[in-house]
Amino acid sequence: MHALRLAAAPAFVDGAEAVPASTVAAGLAAVGRGLAGPDKALVAILTGRGPAGLLVYLGALDLGHAVLVKERPDLATRDALLAAYRPEFVLDAGDEPVPAGHRPVGELCGARLLGRTEAAGSAIHPELAALITTSGSLGRPKAVRLSYANLAANAGAVAAALGLGPQDVGITSLPFDYSFGLSVVNSHLVAGAPLVLSRLSPTSRRFWQLAARTGVTDLGAVPLTYRLLHSTGWRPDAFPALRLAYQAGGPLEPALVEHFGRLMAGHGGGFCPMYGATEATARMCCLDPDELFEHLGSVGRPVPGGRIRLEGADADGVGEIVYEGPNVMLGYASGRADLAEGRSVPEVLHTGDLGRLERGMLYVLGRKDRQLKLYGKRVLPDEIERRLAVVGPAAVVPTAADSAVVFVEGRSEPFRDAWLEVLRELGLPAECLALRATPGLPRTGSGKIDLGRLRELADAR
Fold first, then answer.
1. Fewest Cβ atoms nearer than 10 Å: which of 38, 119, 269, 307?
2. Domains of the chain, with CATH numbers?
3. What is the pLDDT of residues 97-112, one digit of tens each?
4. Distances (CA, A) of 381 to 330, 367, 374, 428
């Protein structure tokens, strides 16, 4: 069976208006007719978080096709992806020029459907279900190849870990082409939970007005979103249906985890830190809200079906996090020829992250490739950044041998005591880990701190 095993017919709310079941059924039937053909095809879905994109996503998988999802890309990104992967079909909003090598072949669920004007080339492996890109518009396109089994396994595991069911109402708080965002969609659909289709930012007032009107029960968001919500004084009191807030997409400072944990607990709900990777379809670990305060700083246990071990652990029990499970990708793809491949990697993912296990709970300490050796001591920049984050944003970048710079946002004085405590614990002199203030830490388009730019600033001094 190619489709996700949906618990019931998918129920969508577009904005604040429910999409009738008859409309969903008619849309899926139209997809079946529009994408029918004797051969497996790649369908590029470029429309975003509306009914058209989701219906074509589900319909394409049901037909045994593969999908490439990219939410409203700019023209340069679109053209690079289409040139690299040569999809047989493209679904877009119809407000951009027709890309080279394609022509309009009709309308599907209210969006424009394009078809290729020449043969795509290599055949597509029978098990390939989805391509999730891992790079932006710069450089050669690269995507994770996911199978139908990957999607189904992770959707079911996440739904079970979060206790999702037909009584819940999810919302598309994240981009459709982000593995975490797609996982939110899949996990709700397999649980039979209705899904509110929102294109709004979860930090906007309109988003929360929509959440209140539609009875949203759970929210998935990245650390930057929770930081912004904290800065605005957000509280769950105005949302009686909200029972769960969960976080993935990078580490959130323990102080903020505790803050949102107490907010949600006081509201009768819970806060759930998670840990994942696109290469594992999405999420690999989950900390049950009932255990949050006992294991603060942990990302919990593996989702059902997954296993975690540490490789190369040192005397302190710190090693590389290795995940095993049925949601581990088939492999990578940088072009059309790669779509013909089956599994090229085992169901084992070497994450490149360092961690330790305590009473079965995983603590993620930072990237393996960010380790520093300062005065013969191993230093983890991510751990230092988390320690300073109780004061404000901070980032550690190496400079010359045996030295690094701790950039902090704003003035240096509020950070000084925490910085000195880190130096004392590590047994390092101040000149080895210099403290430097900057009005604002540079960030990438996704909101992450731009470490490359900070290295340039550090070298310029």
1. 38
2. 1-369 (3.40.50.12780), 371-460 (3.30.300.30)
3. 999 999 999 999 999 9
4. 32, 9, 11, 14
